[in-house]
Amino acid sequence: MSGAKKGLKTIKKMISYSADKTTGRNWRPPKEGENSDCLDKPSVYHATVVIFLEFFAWGLLTSPTITVLSDTFPHHIFLMNGIIQGIKGFLSFLSAPLIGALSDVWGRKPFLLATVFCTCLPIPLLRFNPWWFFSCLSISGAFSVTFSIVFAYVADCTEKDERSHAYGVVSATFAASLITSPALGAYLGNTYNDSVVVALATAISLLDVLFILVCVPESLPERMRPVSWGARIPWEKVDPFSSLRKVGHDPMVLLLCVTIFLSYLPEAGQYSSIFIYLQHVIKFNREEVAVYIAIVGFLSVIVQTLVLSLFMKSLGLKNTIVLSLIFQVTQLLCYAFGTQYWMMWAAGTLAAMSSLSYPAISALISCNADADKQGVVQGIVTGIRGLCNGIGPAIYGWIFFIFNINIDEQKPNVSHNSTSPSDTFKTNPYIPGPPFLFGACLVFLSLLTALFLPDGKLNNISRTSVLLNHNERNVSLSEYDNDFETNDQTLLLRDDINT
């Protein structure tokens, strides 16, 4: 009898050891003094390397891409940029749920490889054929969901109480890559030429692909996958519009979503065109654009960490949201009417402050909604942002086009000490940036809706509508419900891949 018990204990130990070696749930880098080979175990550091290399490669191409865009479409640079970025964003919105659902079945590594490879595929085409480059760039939006897969990867290999910190590390890595790479790309382009920059970006993207192939282990445990790889994936899980259809089920959720839509639509359009606007209309040079990106990015990181925490403690969530929307309206007005360099730098500072809005709204949901509601509501919010990433750039490009703001027709002579709008713009001197004025109007409407947000709990969120969506899925969201924090990039993780 004692021998049987010993045998049973031995089997349990073997099963436990096997589970640790085949699942990523409890894997973590070895602590100091431990003798363990962490290269075979999925960790947050694998995810950070993947993110850093991908976005560092694209950050290098900031200046060369603007140059090629203006050379290829000299008469309609803003319109074509809006169309290209709009198609890319909309395809990303459509494909994100499907890729997330497939990664739940086949694992994270194959889709990390696919998203990074397809997203970086257009890079070498920049110097060979601009038309092929912009065509591939648009289509690559179908795989531009690396962040979603990376956050799912991180969730697989960290404990629940460690995920907030892990997501913060990934987001900080993303910010660091974009802070440093545009400046380096501009420097190399001026010192050598754009071909060197494209070659370096291509090499870094290939290094990223090789790193995933050779060094990144699978994080999704076998026990977490369906029994059969041929398991059916319900349409509700891959339909990108499924979460958006839940918006009208509850007035409070509708109010939150309207606030996000009206504030993020102009933000998406602004981010797609602002660097082209600075370089070709305001006449920043390459180095100034790169420094501008670095400083505004650094300020945004500070704002979303230290300032956000300070404001939420002293002002509360609702007042923080309202204040951030005021910052956003102000910075858009600066871009719309500004013609001097100091106005652009002031607008950049205000833009960093306005980055409080989305994390604060997400915190309002995370802190006040019940645990079983957070995944679905956050999924609705993320779906709206994804839709804005497709619509916003297209609208901005169209407004630039109808106001006849074409680079070849404007020959502004800007000096750093210019004091008169007429010194800078020969056409439409009083509103040089009409899309930004349109965006300011939308954000002002968002500000009005934010005034009706509650200060306390969102008790009016319908439990029935949320549980309906919860029961339609074959997975449980409860395990990751507490993952959503106030970090902007954390919330790129859709609810339908939180498994």
From TrEMBL:
InterPro entries: MFS (IPR011701), MFS_dom (IPR020846), MFS_trans_sf (IPR036259), Sugar_transporter_CS (IPR005829), Tet-R_TetA/multi-R_MdtG-like (IPR001958). The keyword Transport applies. It comes from the Eukaryota. It is a multi-pass membrane protein. It comes from Hydra vulgaris. Residues 43-458 form the Major facilitator superfamily (MFS) profile domain. Keywords: Membrane, Transmembrane, Transmembrane helix, Transport. It is found in: Membrane. Its main location: membrane. This is Hippocampus abundant transcript 1 protein. The chain crosses the membrane at residues 44-61, 73-98, 132-154, 166-189, 195-216, 253-277, 289-308, 320-338, 344-365, 386-407, 436-453. GO terms for molecular function: transmembrane transporter activity. GO terms for cellular component: membrane.
